Amino acid sequence: MGLSMVEYGLLFVASIFAGVINSVAGGGSFFTFPMLLFTGMNPIIANATSTMATWPGMVASTVAYRPEIAANRQKLPALMIISLIGSIIGTIVLLKTPEQTFAGLVPYLLLFATLLFAFGNSIAQKLRKMRGDKKPSTLSHAGVFCLQMGIAIYGGYFGGGMGIVLLSMFALMGLTHIHEMNALKAVLTSTINGVAVVIFIAAHVIAWPQAIVMLCGSVLGGYSGASYAKRLPPLLVRHFIIATGVVLTIYFFLKR
Known about the structure:
It is a single chain. The chain has one domain (5-255). The chain is 82% helix and 0% strand. It contains eleven helices and no strands. It is globular and about 50 Å long. It starts with a helix and ends with a helix. The mean pLDDT is 83.
């Protein structure tokens, strides 16, 4: 059954919000994924379509972060390779998950993502404090690579709250400049979701009419969001995302 113009309009608006939120703090999937579910879409197809729709916005936000990316270019190759491998694993696991099983997991995935947003910032601050001015050791490098593999697998499977975990990982690496951390986050999330998108396209699990409408919105939101990120109050944005996550989590638990 086709969607109404009102439903397409809501998907477009949700994707603009997602693009802005992803470029500033992450968490755009809190808007796109549930909105697709509200239109009656299969949860796995909704997840794939949401990833497809928001990915170009993530790529667009990397353009606005070019100087910050250049400042940390040496850190990217190893992290990107790990991201590629982990995303492939997570995406394949998702496609092998029965629809009914994934639908049952949705409230728990949203709860997990919401908790990451609620407490991820505190974890990042504590990690920064623990590290101080010490240089990363070989052991901490190994820990970062293992953590990045886990993040990439989770990102390929669902990915809600992935940006917050990445920021915590960057704190473990000794990074403190928030805009440089956001730039690295943009590159790695673009890589993880880009791999997932290729696999989703090959598996024919993307609803293209909805994806194209949302893609346009996410690019618009992603580029403008990254450009104006420094003017937005991060704490207010974070509280808004957490509140959205709490409401959606409660809704999907009650709907079970």
